[in-house]
């Protein structure tokens, strides 16, 4: 009887894994598995800057383009730059693929220095003390013309990190930390 239960568990686990792979959004899976360039077009709503960066050439990250993105994501209040986790750019690129859009991403907040984070935290209960923004692993944004709730749903479906939903402030938060949402 125990041998039958063990085999049954193995069969159920394999079937579940196969089903999980079968229902993955194929376009989202192909977005990162296909070796092709990854390009982001963004506007920084606080600085007025615009960027179009091909940060991955199909095989490797392009360091000069990552540096440009790091500067674009800088803490504009303190004029401090931090290396941004390239996985965040991958996540954003994949999200645009899921949403079927190439419209510019409207960046609201990228890197925040600890001093800026503490300043914002004193003014709002929605700012985490140990924010992933201070680690270069988070961004707040929206995409012009797309429903914020659809952006949130697509981000949640990726299960790639944290997803915060702020409809009153008109932005979605994504980060490369553990999978969670609020």
Helix/strand layout:
Elements: H1 2-23, H2 26-33, E1 38-44, E2 50-56, H3 63-72, H4 86-99, E3 105-109, H5 114-123, E4 138-143, H6 148-158, E5 162-166, E6 171-175, E7 180-181
Parallel strand pairs: 1-3, 5-7
Antiparallel strand pairs: 1-2, 3-4, 4-6, 5-6
Helix pairs in contact: 2-4, 4-6
State the end-to-end CA separation. 44 Å
Tally of extended strands? 7
Strand content bin: 15-25%
What is the name of the CATH architecture?
2-Layer Sandwich
Strand order of the largest sheet: 2-1-3-4-6-5-7
Total domain units: 1
Q: Which residues form runs of ≥5 with pLDDT under 50?
A: 11-31
Mean pLDDT: 87
CATH fold naming: Muramoyl-pentapeptide Carboxypeptidase, domain 2
Assign the structural class, choosing from mainly alpha, mainly beta, alpha/beta, alpha+beta, or little secondary structure: alpha/beta
The gross shape turns out to be: globular
H-E order: HHEEHHEHEHEEE
Given this structure, which CATH class is correct?
A: Alpha Beta
Number of helices: 6
Oligomer: single chain
Helix content: 40-55%
Taking the sheet with the most strands, its summary is: 7 strands, mixed
Gyration radius, to the nearest Å?
19 Å
Any overview of this molecule?
This protein has a single domain (25-181), classed as Muramoyl-pentapeptide Carboxypeptidase, domain 2 (2-Layer Sandwich). The chain contains six helices and seven strands; from the N terminus they run H-H-E-E-H-H-E-H-E-H-E-E-E. The protein has a seven-stranded mixed β-sheet. The chain is globular, with a radius of gyration of 19 Å. Mean pLDDT is 87; it is low at 11-31. A hairpin with a 5-residue loop joins strand 1 and strand 2 (50-56). The chain has 182 residues and is of the alpha/beta class. Belongs to the peptidase M15 family. Pathway: Cell wall biogenesis; cell wall polysaccharide biosynthesis.
């Amino acid at each position: 009887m125990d041998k039958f239960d063990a085999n049954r568990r193995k069969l159920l686990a394999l079937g579940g894994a196969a089903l999980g792979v079968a229902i993955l959004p194929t376009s989202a899976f192909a977005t990162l598995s296909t070796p092709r360039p990854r390009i982001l077009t963004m506007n920084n709503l606080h600085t007025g800057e615009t960027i179009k960066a091909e940060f991955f050439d199909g095989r490797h990250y392009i360091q000069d383009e990552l540096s440009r993105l790091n500067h674009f994501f800088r803490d504009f209040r303190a004029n401090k730059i931090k290396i941004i986790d390239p996985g965040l750019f991958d996540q954003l690129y994949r999200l645009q693929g899921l949403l079927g859009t190439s419209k510019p991403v409207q960046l609201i907040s990228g890197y925040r220095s600890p001093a800026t984070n503490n300043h914002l935290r004193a003014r709002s209960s929605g700012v985490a003390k140990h924010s992933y923004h201070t680690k270069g692993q988070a961004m707040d944004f929206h995409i012009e013309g797309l429903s914020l709730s659809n952006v949130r749903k697509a981000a949640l479906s990726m299960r790639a990190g944290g997803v915060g939903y702020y409809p009153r402030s008109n932005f979605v938060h994504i980060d490369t930390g553990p999978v969670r949402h609020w």
